[in-house]
Amino acid sequence: MAKDNPPAALQIKAYADHHVITQPNPLRKVLLRVPETDLDDPVGRAEKALAGLSGEFKNWMAIEADRLSAAHTTILKDGFTTATREELFRAAHDIKGDAATFGYPSAAAAAESLCRIIEHAPDLDAVPSNLIAHHINAIQAIVHDNTKLDTVSMASELSQKLRGVADEYLTYANRDRPDHLEAILAPSIAPAE
Amino acid sequence: MFRIDFNKLRFLVCDDNPHMRRILRTLLHSFGAREVYEAEDGATALEMYSHYVPDIVITDWAMPIFDGLELAQMIRQPESKGNPYAPIIMLTGHSEKRRVTVARDAGVTEFLAKPISAKALYQRILNVVANPRPFIKTKIYFGPDRRRNTNNAYIGPERRVGGEAEVMQQPSLLDKARSST
Question: Is the pLDDT of residue B168 over 80?
Fold first, then answer.
């Protein structure tokens, strides 16, 4: 639509230290008034389409978990550099964001805990290596375990325990860094499951 | 009651994760969108933004080359030849309050924390289509009005001067990010 219509005229009001710029809503034309009896349900349609993709989620999750393990293996070999740290963070961050959608909420929780370690540990080389390894092993176990670990409370307990240990470490390690401490202790804004 | 004619909307989706791009594409096509362009990093997205002139941008935050935050800042250049006013929805795994503030200050229109749901995405799109906010230009900011509530008692250093506050009554970006709908 954007290319089909020239930009609407801007109205600019100037004030002492700012301008307020308004334009007629360029997207108004796509807003349709429909009767309350309208049966179209785009959200329901999208949820069905998402459910149709769910057959691929297990494979996608395995790919994401393997990417995380590969990033960790590189760190064990080469140590933490800007590049290896970023790849580990991005891999964990993707799992944090995607895993609940793929049906693995406990893997998402463990990945979130790992992200917090990478983001807030003052010195990643000083983090007990087992702490990072346990997070990655837990995610692998949740994703790959044939007994579908994530369907039982054990996976949830495992991620909660990891988060508890990680938070304890981060709270102590950041005791003199109030900005990080505040971020560590702040509640998440992610929507609840 | 209002419904969006997605058929007439052009989307640009930017996410380095192919699985998330597939999910977004599936959701948008199911809503009725036909034109969905995809980029896997901020640099490519910026090129596509200039070329395809999308109506709405949906971007991840953490990406290689330059990230979603930088993409938003590049789009929100008031003197640029492209359209600096397009709504930007940031869809991200970041789930901390301070991230919402940083995204808001980069000119992001809506913030959506993962995990994604069809309903939450639809609501964000509906909001940017139905309730566009005026843009504010100051020495250090250009983007949608960051005030969603009138607070005449505010006397902090970022208080605007020289006129009545012109704000729309809406939930704050943080409140909206906290809600799943």
Answer: no
Which class is domain A57-185? Answer: mainly alpha
CB contact A87 to B (< 8 Å): no
- For strands B142-144 and B135-137, give the pairing: antiparallel
Indicate the residue of A26, A40, A53 with minimum beta-carbon distance to B26.
A53
B115 contact A CB<8A: yes
Window 50-109 of B, Cβ < 8 Å to A: 52-56, 62, 64, 83, 85-87, 92-98, 100
pLDDT-derived band at B165 (thresholds 50, 70, 90) equals: very low
* Domain-wise residue ranges, chain A: 11-48, 57-185
Options 1.20.272.10, 3.40.50.2300, 3.40.50.9100, 3.10.20.310; CATH of B6-178: 3.40.50.2300
Residue for token pair 């605007």: B160
The Cα–Cα gap between A138 and A112 comes to 12
Burial A70-102 (b: 16+ CB within 10 A, else e): ebbeebeeeeeeeebbebbbbbbbbbbbbbbbb
CA dist., res. B143 & res. A11, Å (int)? 15
What is chain A's Cα-based Rg?
23
Q: Which residue of A has its CA nearest to B20?
A: A98
| Partners of B139 in the β-ladder | none
What is the reported pTM?
Answer: 0.86
Domain segments of chain B as ranges:
6-178
Res B169 pLDDT > 50: no
Report yes or no: A43 at the B interface, CB cutoff 8 Å.
yes
Instruction: Please name which of A184, A171, A191 lies closest in space to residue B116, comparing C-alpha atoms.
Output: A191
* Predicted local confidence at residue A189, as pLDDT: 72
d(CA A50, CA A28): 28
Alpha carbon separation from A192 to A43, A105, B95, B178, B180 (Å, rounded): 19, 10, 11, 9, 7
| Residue in B55, B121, B162 closest to A16 by CB | B162
Does A183 touch chain B if contact means CB atoms closer than 8 Å?
yes
Q: Looking at the predicted complex, does its ipTM rise above 0.90?
A: no
CA atoms within 13 A on the CB side of B58: 26
